[in-house]
UniProtKB/TrEMBL annotation:
Signal peptide: none annotated. The chain crosses the membrane at residues 27-45, 65-83. It is found in: Mitochondrion membrane. The keyword Ribonucleoprotein does not apply. This is HIG1 hypoxia inducible domain family member 1C. GO terms for biological process: mitochondrial respirasome assembly; response to hypoxia. Keywords: Membrane, Transmembrane, Transmembrane helix. One of its GO terms (cellular component) is mitochondrial membrane. It comes from Bos mutus grunniens. The lineage of its organism: Eukaryota, Metazoa, Chordata, Craniata, Vertebrata. InterPro entries: Hypoxia_induced_domain, RCF1. The keyword Membrane applies. Its main location: mitochondrion.
Length: 97
C-alpha cells in the first residue's frame, strides 16, 4: 500500500486512537455514537414497561429513533463542514483585504 493513501489501515494504530483521530476530523461522529447508544439503552430500559405493545412494534420504534438521531448528527456534521470549508473562509477573507 502506498504511504500517501489516507484510507490505508495503519497496523500500529489501535481502535481507541483511531476513534480519537476520527473524532478530531469529524466532531459529530462521537455525538452520533453517543446518541445511538443512549436511544438504544433507553429503549431497552422501556422494554420492561411496554405493557400490551407488541415486541416488534417496540423494536421498530427504537430503531427509527436511533437512526433518526444518527442521521441528525450526520446532517449537523455536514452542515458544519460546509460552513467551515466554504462560508467562513469567504466571510473572513472579505474583511482581510
Amino acid at each position: 500500500m502506498s504511504s500517501g493513501n489516507q484510507w490505508s489501515a495503519d497496523e500500529d494504530e489501535g481502535q481507541l486512537s483511531r476513534l480519537i483521530r476520527k473524532s478530531r476530523d469529524s466532531p459529530f461522529v462521537p455525538v452520533g455514537i453517543a446518541g445511538f447508544v443512549t436511544v438504544v439503552s433507553y429503549g431497552l430500559y422501556k422494554l420492561k414497561y411496554r405493557r400490551d405493545q407488541k415486541m416488534s412494534i417496540h423494536l421498530i420504534h427504537m430503531r427509527v429513533a436511533a437512526q433518526g438521531f444518527v442521521v441528525g448528527a450526520v446532517t449537523l456534521g455536514v452542515l458544519y463542514s460546509m460552513y467551515k470549508d466554504y462560508i467562513r473562509p469567504r466571510f473572513f477573507n472579505r474583511y482581510k483585504k
